[in-house]
Amino acid sequence: MDGAAQPPSPRQWFGLVAVALGVALIVVDLTIVNVIVAPIIEDLSIGSVEAQWVQESYAIVFAALLLLTGRLADLHGARKIFLIGLAVFGVTSLLAAVAPNGGLLIVARFLQGIGGAMILPTSLALVNATFTGKARGQAFAVWGSTIGAAAAVGPLLGGWLADFSWRWAFGVNIPLVALIMAGALLFLPSSPRTRGSVDLVGAVLSAVGLGLLAFAMIEGRTYGWLLTVEPLNVGGLSWSAGPSPVLVAFLVSALVLRAFWRRQAALGRVGLGAGAGAGAGVEPLMDVRLFSVASFRGGNVVTVLVGLGEFGIIAVLPLWLQFALDYSAFQAGLALVALAVGSFTASGASFSMAASVPALGQVRIGLVLEAVGLVTLGLIAATDSAWWLIALALFVYGVGVGFATAQVTNVVLVDVPAGSAGQGSGIQSAARELGSALGIAVLTTLFLSTLNSGLRDRLADLGIRGEEAERLGDAVTHSAGSAIGPLSADPRTASVADAAREAMTSGLAISSYVCAALLVLALAATVFVAPRKEADSRV
User: Fold this and answer.
1) Phi/psi at 199 (nearest 5 deg)?
2) Is the pLDDT of residue 501 over 90?
3) What number of other Cβ atoms are within 10 A of residue 524's Cβ?
4) How many CA within 13 A on the CB side of residue 351?
């Protein structure tokens, strides 16, 4: 019980700082590029297709490899894989910073995704193994708050660095990686290893299946969900008609992941022996028996729903701040600092709550606060919203993120056997990333669809219909709102810009309410999560 657990040493807390900073690096890189893409396009003279791959390649590779890196953490030790991931991330950040053209930058972003995929699940495994008792809940609070804060700070950092050069957005990673590696070597003990092997066929199946699924969820709005609306150009080949590549990716992903699950189930049944054609001496990449653990199974469902509700709004909020309220990129990032402050406030509060409120209770508190913050944001959204009202709503939302994101991970991993900690962390990380990707895809589509339909309704009220309304609506929607500024500067189209701001504000309000509803659904799903041990008192 809690009283039997030894209090953490200063060395362990310093090790946690190194782990948290490593997580912050990879989360910031998921969001920072969205802010610096404009100067990248201008400096490297790349087109919209290349720019999109610069943005998305990192996230796709990241999601694709999480199960494999989780298994590698069990076999070779979480600290070792964490350090290798940091090294890969540092080298590829240097490659991105000096990239002379778009092609090399895209390659660097793909390779960065490999490093990120090695860091996230191993950070979970390291926290889970280093801390016990109520200190585990406190450590996960720091870990989770770092994710929420880093997601919010990414745009701010990108906006600031873009004033110097977009290359610094990658170059700043290099000294940070060196510092984190030094901290990990000094304060994190070597991790235990388990004997076994990697299922190479399973690794390929999981990477292909998860990669295609991530691609489909990220690119659905661009290429069309059912039919091709925009050509996909890869290596001189073009997919420009017929069924959407996104639809095909979904179907192939479903088939590949089904084959992966069947193979892992077969390998799990036969152990080290040959069976079901799986091959002798092959161990599963993912132990499907983990899903028989109620807290693990239910906790991952909650993780997906939380990812859906949390990250979607972070994707569309900067667009509203910049193009409806006319904030600069730096000002928009600064507004999101309230979210980061709220997230760290929750981290501090959880230290005193750990002894009295179990992890699952903190998850529920967090989900309620997130929903309240988002509903408040929807209610106060206007084309002239005061900054302090926005900050207040985001602060409440951020406090919820700090509780829910951190402690849902604690709940998921509490009953996972120590020898499967890497696998469990990889699965939970994959659930988080896929939920986030789906949330961004769904919320961005909803936001821009609401913008388009709302703008056309308002243009009709202004007497603008037919082809002219369609042209103006497409210009605003396809630019994600960036066309509002030029429209506003021209007296002949200033009323159109005002209509676009109102439509974008309505889109944000609806998106806020939908995200709040998803988080309430996640709250309802916690009823089915029943840890055998309380997550904050495990020893």
Assistant:
1) -75, 100
2) yes
3) 12
4) 8
